[in-house]
Amino acid sequence: MKRVLFSLLTLGLAHGAHADPVKAAAVQSQRALGTQLRVADGGWGSVSAQEVERVLASVIQEFGGAAHDVPLPPVLVRHHFGSPLISYDRALDGAYVIWLSARNDRWYQYVYQFSHELCHLLSRFDLKEHDGEVVRENQWFEESLCETASLYALRRLAANWAQSDADQDLQQAAPLLAKYADTLLAQPHRELPAGLSMSAWFAQNEDQLRREPYLRELNELVAAQILPLFERNPELWRALAYLNVSAAPAHSQFYDYLALWRAAAPQEFKPFVAELESLFGVGAQVEHLASLPGIKSR
Protein backbone atom coordinates (compact mmCIF):
# COMPACT_ATOMS: atom_id res chain seq x y z
CA MET A 1 0.00 0.00 0.00
CA LYS A 2 1.57 3.24 -1.10
CA ARG A 3 1.90 5.88 1.58
CA VAL A 4 1.04 9.48 0.86
CA LEU A 5 3.12 11.94 2.83
CA PHE A 6 2.10 15.58 2.76
CA SER A 7 4.93 17.80 3.90
CA LEU A 8 4.10 21.07 5.56
CA LEU A 9 4.68 22.82 2.24
CA THR A 10 2.32 20.50 0.38
CA LEU A 11 -0.43 21.25 2.88
CA GLY A 12 -0.57 24.84 1.81
CA LEU A 13 2.34 27.06 2.71
CA ALA A 14 3.91 26.55 -0.72
CA HIS A 15 1.03 28.24 -2.48
CA GLY A 16 2.27 31.73 -1.75
CA ALA A 17 0.08 34.68 -0.97
CA HIS A 18 -3.05 32.91 -2.14
CA ALA A 19 -2.65 29.90 0.16
CA ASP A 20 -5.91 28.41 1.42
CA PRO A 21 -6.40 29.67 5.02
CA VAL A 22 -7.93 26.32 6.00
CA LYS A 23 -4.86 24.48 4.73
CA ALA A 24 -2.53 26.96 6.41
CA ALA A 25 -4.36 26.48 9.71
CA ALA A 26 -3.97 22.73 9.31
CA VAL A 27 -0.22 23.18 8.92
CA GLN A 28 -0.12 25.28 12.08
CA SER A 29 -2.09 22.63 13.94
CA GLN A 30 0.41 19.94 13.00
CA ARG A 31 3.26 22.15 14.14
CA ALA A 32 1.45 22.78 17.43
CA LEU A 33 1.15 19.05 18.02
CA GLY A 34 4.78 18.53 17.08
CA THR A 35 3.77 15.82 14.64
CA GLN A 36 3.34 14.95 10.99
CA LEU A 37 0.11 13.45 9.75
CA ARG A 38 0.27 10.85 6.99
CA VAL A 39 -2.67 9.13 5.34
CA ALA A 40 -2.13 5.90 3.39
CA ASP A 41 -3.76 5.39 0.02
CA GLY A 42 -6.48 2.82 -0.43
CA GLY A 43 -9.90 2.07 1.00
CA TRP A 44 -11.31 5.58 1.23
CA GLY A 45 -13.82 5.05 -1.58
CA SER A 46 -14.62 8.06 -3.71
CA VAL A 47 -12.20 10.43 -1.95
CA SER A 48 -8.42 10.61 -2.04
CA ALA A 49 -5.92 10.24 0.77
CA GLN A 50 -5.12 13.93 0.28
CA GLU A 51 -8.72 14.92 0.95
CA VAL A 52 -8.87 12.69 4.02
CA GLU A 53 -5.64 14.14 5.34
CA ARG A 54 -6.95 17.66 4.94
CA VAL A 55 -10.02 16.89 7.04
CA LEU A 56 -8.04 15.05 9.71
CA ALA A 57 -5.61 17.97 9.92
CA SER A 58 -8.62 20.17 10.68
CA VAL A 59 -9.44 17.85 13.57
CA ILE A 60 -5.90 18.16 14.91
CA GLN A 61 -6.27 21.92 14.79
CA GLU A 62 -9.10 21.77 17.33
CA PHE A 63 -6.78 20.03 19.80
CA GLY A 64 -3.73 22.05 18.82
CA GLY A 65 -2.92 23.11 22.37
CA ALA A 66 -3.24 19.62 23.81
CA ALA A 67 0.38 18.66 23.11
CA HIS A 68 1.67 21.89 24.61
CA ASP A 69 3.87 20.01 27.10
CA VAL A 70 4.38 16.67 25.35
CA PRO A 71 5.09 16.81 21.58
CA LEU A 72 3.75 13.80 19.75
CA PRO A 73 5.48 11.58 17.19
CA PRO A 74 4.19 11.17 13.64
CA VAL A 75 0.75 9.69 13.02
CA LEU A 76 -0.04 7.31 10.17
CA VAL A 77 -3.72 6.81 9.30
CA ARG A 78 -4.86 3.73 7.40
CA HIS A 79 -8.24 2.43 6.31
CA HIS A 80 -9.74 -0.91 7.26
CA PHE A 81 -13.24 -2.34 7.46
CA GLY A 82 -13.13 -3.11 11.17
CA SER A 83 -13.74 -0.87 14.16
CA PRO A 84 -11.63 2.30 14.41
CA LEU A 85 -8.62 1.84 16.66
CA ILE A 86 -5.15 3.02 17.55
CA SER A 87 -2.53 0.32 17.61
CA TYR A 88 -0.04 -0.42 20.37
CA ASP A 89 2.32 -1.53 17.59
CA ARG A 90 3.93 1.38 15.79
CA ALA A 91 5.02 1.68 12.17
CA LEU A 92 8.65 0.98 11.29
CA ASP A 93 9.49 4.68 11.51
CA GLY A 94 7.93 4.97 14.98
CA ALA A 95 4.66 6.55 13.86
CA TYR A 96 1.51 5.78 15.77
CA VAL A 97 -0.94 3.93 13.53
CA ILE A 98 -4.64 4.85 13.57
CA TRP A 99 -7.15 2.76 11.64
CA LEU A 100 -10.43 4.27 10.45
CA SER A 101 -13.42 2.69 8.72
CA ALA A 102 -15.01 5.89 7.34
CA ARG A 103 -15.39 6.01 3.56
CA ASN A 104 -16.35 8.33 0.73
CA ASP A 105 -17.19 11.90 1.67
CA ARG A 106 -18.95 11.19 4.97
CA TRP A 107 -16.70 13.73 6.69
CA TYR A 108 -18.69 13.61 9.91
CA GLN A 109 -17.64 9.97 10.32
CA TYR A 110 -13.97 10.79 9.75
CA VAL A 111 -14.16 13.56 12.34
CA TYR A 112 -15.98 11.37 14.84
CA GLN A 113 -13.66 8.39 14.49
CA PHE A 114 -10.35 10.21 14.25
CA SER A 115 -11.08 12.48 17.22
CA HIS A 116 -11.67 9.45 19.42
CA GLU A 117 -8.40 7.80 18.48
CA LEU A 118 -6.48 11.07 18.64
CA CYS A 119 -7.76 11.48 22.21
CA HIS A 120 -6.20 8.14 23.14
CA LEU A 121 -2.93 9.43 21.73
CA LEU A 122 -3.16 12.73 23.61
CA SER A 123 -3.83 10.83 26.85
CA ARG A 124 -0.68 8.75 26.25
CA PHE A 125 -2.69 5.58 26.24
CA ASP A 126 0.29 3.27 25.87
CA LEU A 127 1.61 4.19 29.32
CA LYS A 128 -1.12 1.96 30.77
CA GLU A 129 0.56 -1.15 29.40
CA HIS A 130 2.51 -2.94 32.13
CA ASP A 131 4.37 -6.21 31.53
CA GLY A 132 2.48 -6.67 28.26
CA GLU A 133 -0.93 -6.21 29.88
CA VAL A 134 -3.16 -3.14 29.69
CA VAL A 135 -4.56 -1.97 33.01
CA ARG A 136 -8.31 -2.10 32.38
CA GLU A 137 -10.20 -1.21 35.55
CA ASN A 138 -10.34 2.52 34.80
CA GLN A 139 -10.15 2.26 31.01
CA TRP A 140 -13.85 3.17 30.82
CA PHE A 141 -12.93 6.73 31.81
CA GLU A 142 -10.47 7.18 28.96
CA GLU A 143 -13.08 5.73 26.58
CA SER A 144 -15.57 8.27 27.88
CA LEU A 145 -13.08 11.11 27.45
CA CYS A 146 -12.49 10.03 23.86
CA GLU A 147 -16.21 9.96 23.12
CA THR A 148 -16.25 13.48 24.55
CA ALA A 149 -13.47 14.43 22.13
CA SER A 150 -15.54 13.16 19.20
CA LEU A 151 -18.55 15.25 20.19
CA TYR A 152 -16.36 18.26 20.86
CA ALA A 153 -14.66 18.08 17.46
CA LEU A 154 -17.93 17.62 15.59
CA ARG A 155 -19.45 20.70 17.19
CA ARG A 156 -16.34 22.87 16.88
CA LEU A 157 -15.68 22.00 13.26
CA ALA A 158 -19.35 22.41 12.37
CA ALA A 159 -19.12 26.00 13.59
CA ASN A 160 -15.71 26.69 12.07
CA TRP A 161 -16.40 25.14 8.68
CA ALA A 162 -19.70 27.02 8.42
CA GLN A 163 -17.77 30.29 8.68
CA SER A 164 -15.06 29.33 6.20
CA ASP A 165 -15.12 31.11 2.86
CA ALA A 166 -12.02 29.26 1.67
CA ASP A 167 -13.46 25.80 1.09
CA GLN A 168 -16.99 25.30 -0.17
CA ASP A 169 -16.82 21.53 0.32
CA LEU A 170 -16.14 21.88 4.04
CA GLN A 171 -18.69 24.65 4.30
CA GLN A 172 -21.33 22.39 2.79
CA ALA A 173 -20.33 19.57 5.13
CA ALA A 174 -20.66 21.73 8.26
CA PRO A 175 -24.45 21.22 8.73
CA LEU A 176 -23.96 17.44 8.52
CA LEU A 177 -21.39 17.57 11.32
CA ALA A 178 -23.74 19.61 13.47
CA LYS A 179 -26.67 17.31 12.72
CA TYR A 180 -24.62 14.23 13.55
CA ALA A 181 -23.55 15.68 16.90
CA ASP A 182 -27.11 16.75 17.71
CA THR A 183 -28.43 13.32 16.79
CA LEU A 184 -25.92 11.60 19.04
CA LEU A 185 -26.51 13.91 21.99
CA ALA A 186 -30.29 13.47 21.66
CA GLN A 187 -30.07 9.71 22.21
CA PRO A 188 -31.99 8.91 25.42
CA HIS A 189 -29.25 6.72 26.88
CA ARG A 190 -26.92 9.72 27.03
CA GLU A 191 -29.13 11.46 29.59
CA LEU A 192 -29.09 10.88 33.32
CA PRO A 193 -32.25 9.19 34.58
CA ALA A 194 -34.72 11.66 36.02
CA GLY A 195 -33.91 12.63 39.58
CA LEU A 196 -30.49 10.95 39.56
CA SER A 197 -27.27 12.90 40.03
CA MET A 198 -24.06 11.97 38.24
CA SER A 199 -22.49 10.78 41.48
CA ALA A 200 -25.51 8.59 42.27
CA TRP A 201 -25.50 7.16 38.75
CA PHE A 202 -21.79 6.42 39.01
CA ALA A 203 -22.24 4.66 42.33
CA GLN A 204 -24.81 2.39 40.68
CA ASN A 205 -22.70 1.66 37.60
CA GLU A 206 -19.07 1.74 38.72
CA ASP A 207 -18.70 -2.02 39.16
CA GLN A 208 -20.07 -2.66 35.69
CA LEU A 209 -17.80 -0.03 34.15
CA ARG A 210 -14.74 -1.52 35.81
CA ARG A 211 -15.58 -5.02 34.62
CA GLU A 212 -16.25 -4.00 31.01
CA PRO A 213 -14.77 -0.65 29.92
CA TYR A 214 -16.27 -0.73 26.42
CA LEU A 215 -19.98 -0.50 27.27
CA ARG A 216 -20.72 2.25 24.80
CA GLU A 217 -24.03 3.43 26.19
CA LEU A 218 -22.52 3.97 29.64
CA ASN A 219 -19.43 5.68 28.22
CA GLU A 220 -21.62 7.91 26.08
CA LEU A 221 -23.67 9.04 29.07
CA VAL A 222 -20.46 10.00 30.89
CA ALA A 223 -19.24 11.87 27.80
CA ALA A 224 -22.41 13.94 27.59
CA GLN A 225 -21.97 15.03 31.21
CA ILE A 226 -18.36 16.17 30.87
CA LEU A 227 -18.56 17.70 27.38
CA PRO A 228 -19.62 21.15 28.72
CA LEU A 229 -16.41 21.37 30.77
CA PHE A 230 -14.25 21.17 27.65
CA GLU A 231 -16.50 23.38 25.59
CA ARG A 232 -16.23 26.09 28.22
CA ASN A 233 -12.45 25.78 28.34
CA PRO A 234 -10.75 24.00 25.40
CA GLU A 235 -7.37 24.35 27.15
CA LEU A 236 -8.46 21.49 29.41
CA TRP A 237 -7.55 19.04 26.66
CA ARG A 238 -3.95 19.75 27.65
CA ALA A 239 -4.61 18.00 30.95
CA LEU A 240 -4.91 14.66 29.16
CA ALA A 241 -1.14 14.51 28.75
CA TYR A 242 -0.91 13.81 32.50
CA LEU A 243 -3.72 11.26 32.78
CA ASN A 244 -1.59 8.13 32.57
CA VAL A 245 1.90 9.33 33.44
CA SER A 246 1.73 7.96 36.99
CA ALA A 247 1.47 4.18 36.96
CA ALA A 248 -1.67 3.39 38.92
CA PRO A 249 -1.76 0.03 40.71
CA ALA A 250 -3.32 -2.67 38.55
CA HIS A 251 -6.57 -2.75 40.50
CA SER A 252 -6.69 0.83 41.74
CA GLN A 253 -10.00 2.47 42.52
CA PHE A 254 -11.28 5.33 40.39
CA TYR A 255 -10.61 7.88 43.14
CA ASP A 256 -6.97 6.72 43.22
CA TYR A 257 -6.78 7.08 39.45
CA LEU A 258 -8.10 10.66 39.53
CA ALA A 259 -5.90 11.57 42.48
CA LEU A 260 -2.80 10.38 40.62
CA TRP A 261 -3.89 12.47 37.64
CA ARG A 262 -4.46 15.53 39.80
CA ALA A 263 -1.07 15.13 41.45
CA ALA A 264 0.74 14.74 38.13
CA ALA A 265 -0.99 17.67 36.41
CA PRO A 266 0.35 21.23 36.50
CA GLN A 267 -1.33 23.56 38.96
CA GLU A 268 -3.56 25.12 36.31
CA PHE A 269 -5.37 21.79 35.74
CA LYS A 270 -5.73 20.58 39.32
CA PRO A 271 -9.08 22.41 39.82
CA PHE A 272 -10.41 20.66 36.72
CA VAL A 273 -9.55 17.21 38.04
CA ALA A 274 -10.96 18.17 41.43
CA GLU A 275 -14.18 19.18 39.66
CA LEU A 276 -14.35 15.74 38.10
CA GLU A 277 -13.80 14.15 41.49
CA SER A 278 -16.75 16.13 42.80
CA LEU A 279 -18.89 15.30 39.75
CA PHE A 280 -18.37 11.57 40.25
CA GLY A 281 -18.75 11.83 44.01
CA VAL A 282 -15.26 10.57 44.83
CA GLY A 283 -13.67 13.77 46.09
CA ALA A 284 -14.31 12.95 49.74
CA GLN A 285 -12.37 9.69 49.37
CA VAL A 286 -8.98 11.13 48.47
CA GLU A 287 -7.73 12.51 51.78
CA HIS A 288 -5.50 9.47 52.40
CA LEU A 289 -3.90 9.52 48.97
CA ALA A 290 -0.86 11.60 49.84
CA SER A 291 0.79 8.37 50.96
CA LEU A 292 0.15 6.52 47.68
CA PRO A 293 3.22 5.65 45.58
CA GLY A 294 3.64 8.13 42.77
CA ILE A 295 1.67 10.96 44.41
CA LYS A 296 3.74 14.11 44.05
CA SER A 297 2.31 17.55 43.47
CA ARG A 298 3.84 19.69 40.75
Structure in words:
- By secondary structure, this protein is an alpha/beta fold.
- The protein has helices at 21-33, 49-62, 107-122, 139-162, 168-185, 198-211, 216-232, 254-264, 270-279; strands at residues 3-5, 37-40, 75-79, 85-86, 96-100, 129-130, 133-134.
- Among the domains are: 3-136, no CATH class; 246-298, no CATH class.
- The strands form two sheets. It has a five-stranded mixed beta sheet with strand order 1-2-3-5-4, with helices on one face.
- Helix 4 (139-162) crosses helix 5 (168-185).
- It starts with a strand and ends in a 19-residue tail after the last helix.
How much of the residues is beta strand, in percent? 5-15%
> What's the N-to-C terminus distance?
45 Å
Q: What is the approximate shape? A: globular
Strand order of the largest sheet: 1-2-3-5-4
Average pLDDT, to the nearest integer? 82
Major sheet: size, sense and barrel closure? 5 strands, mixed
Order of helices and strands: EHEHEEEHEEHHHHHH
Computed CA radius of gyration, to the nearest angstrom: 19 Å
Outline the fold blueprint.
Layout: E1 3-5, H1 21-33, E2 37-40, H2 49-62, E3 75-79, E4 85-86, E5 96-100, H3 107-122, E6 129-130, E7 133-134, H4 139-162, H5 168-185, H6 198-211, H7 216-232, H8 254-264, H9 270-279
Parallel strand pairs: 2-3, 3-5
Antiparallel strand pairs: 1-2, 4-5, 6-7
Helix pairs in contact: 1-2, 2-3, 3-4, 4-5, 4-7, 8-9
Give a short overview.
Among the domains are: 3-136, no CATH class; 246-298, no CATH class. The protein is 46% helix and 8% strand. The protein has nine helices and seven strands.
